Amino acid sequence: MSVEQHGFQTEVKQLLHLLAHSLYSNKEVFLRELISNASDAIDKLRFISLQDSSALGDDTQYHIRLSVDKDKKTLTISDNGIGMTKDEAIDHLGTIAKSGTAEFFKNMTGDSAKDSQLIGQFGVGFYSAFIVADKVTVISRSYKAAANEAVCWASDGEGSYTVDNANKETRGTDIILSLRADEEEFLNDWTLRQAVTKYSDHISCPVELLTTVKPEKKEGETDEPAEYTEWQQINDAKALWTRNPKEIKDEEYKEFYKHISHDYDDPLCWTHNRVEGSQEYTNLLYIPKHAPWDLFNREQKHGLKLYVQRVFIMDDADVFMPSYLRFVKGVLDSNDLPLNVSREILQDNKVTGSLRKACTKKTLQMLDKLSKREDKSEYATFWTQFGAVFKEGLVEDYENKDEIFKLCRFASTNETTGAQDVSLEDYISRMPEKQKNIYYLVAESYQAAVASPYLEALKKKGIEVLLMWERVDEWVMANVREYGERKLISVTSEDLELGELEDAEDKAKQEEVAKESADLIKRMKDALGDMVADVKVSNRLVDTPSCVIGSSMMTSQMRRLLEASGQKLPEEKFTLEINPHHELVKKMSAQTDPESFKNWANLIYEQALLADQGGLKDPSAFLKRVNSLLLK
């Protein structure tokens, strides 16, 4: 076969350009990434060998090997894992197969420091080789291929790469880095040992360094003994999660997280649990500091690394974590599942449900501890990154609903900064003695929520209202009606239930105003006709002339979301609530000309619709009406 030349995927070109300019502050991170990939390749082959022992041939001892050639200035990282075919090399090394790549590059700023962090969040894996190398050559032989069916992939990290046939006596992959002149420190044994100890000591298979050994001259010998080379293991090679948690340093936990997640940053927190009894398993679970780019893609596989009796089975085992905890990274090692377990078997296995409950419980306990730390900024980071996803659990995980609610954070009328740092316990602790319910408002944005007319009467009474504006809030609050024994009541509901907060004097005044306004209400109903379901005097408005209340359970935000997704919904008629004390309503009431009164009634109704819906079906007619009344 003649050498084939291919162009990189556009995103890869951009990424390589950034990496070539050494954006990473710790350049040795490339070694961690390449060793992690080698470890994954070995794990995959180990799993295949459970069903097909012939996959290993005579090469049954797994290893990752580092060797240097000081004359050629190359560093080689080799493994005897699953290997790649030609098509796999093109697919894996020429493209970034991750959702969210467009969003990732859209966020690039041109500021090296900021872009470096973005790259770290995205996880660049193999491409990190170009941090230190001006040429990378990959020679790989799939475990299914013959010696003359290997592939050679090479690139200088600019715009293209070549693919050619190659011969390789053993299965697995060799990555040969031609180091830049200013990166030759990675030709030194000491530098490599230090980097492996720091980043990859926990890799469960041996990492070996080809070392030159100079024997000591024995007494009586006249000639210098000849030097020789040998492979020396330079990592501990004991799976971190199998060790006693009391013996593991925080730095080791952090580096193991980076190994399994390919994240550049430390995790927010972690929990390590070993359980013995009716079931035997170990889990090591982490909460990241940053949301992945595909967090909101529920179809994208997320989950834990599954091991059975220390043998790697699969990545992204999603059955052990509910969807609302899909951001959790970690390892689950079970002694109760069969070694040949598959995704299909996991779905129906009785052990799976029990392990899922246990992992969920441990995660919620970990988050509870995080929320109680003295440094509140850490939990604020969690909530900012993952709160919108975490809230899905209020609907999806009824069994743990109250625990999830305790961990939720909200903005409120008591906190006017927009920060979402109010817990339900905070809210309840501030409730007036007569208040029995929890009040909330879902709006399009924080600004819209703060300025909402629906809050006016409650603010006047000193009642705190929780403010929500994320897309998930619509769905969640439509399905969750209470917290403990307290009702959750929307301030936009048709019958705003104030209970004991509405004292007898207020109620009497309200009834009196309604009675006095009976004639005005009738005139407005006649003027608006079929446009409205009803017109009534409002008990929630103070500074605003009017508002609209939907008769269905569907809020205006939910309606807009469904319509934006292409769903056709029946037209809803609203109840118009008016504030008879407002000057505009008084001005309307004073109109004796029926046509003029109708114009004012329409204006007050359309204002309320605009405030609630964010738009009108006929804005030009509204503007004509406004102009006409202004000119008068």
Descriptive report:
With 632 residues, the chain is an alpha+beta fold. The chain folds into 4 domains: 4-215, Heat Shock Protein 90; 240-383, Ribosomal Protein S5, domain 2, CATH 3.30.230.80; 409-501, Rossmann fold, CATH 3.40.50; 504-631, Four Helix Bundle (Hemerythrin (Met), subunit A) (Up-down Bundle), CATH 1.20.120.790. Helices cover 37% and strands 20% of the residues. It has 22 helices and 22 strands. The strands form 4 sheets. The protein has a 9-stranded mixed sheet with strand order 1-6-5-4-7-3-2-8-9, with helices on one face. A 5-stranded mixed sheet has the order 10-11-14-12-13, with helices on both faces. Strands 15-17-16-19-18 form a 5-stranded mixed sheet. Strand 2 (64-69) and strand 3 form a beta hairpin. Helix 20 runs antiparallel to helix 21. It is elongated. The protein starts with a strand and ends with a helix.
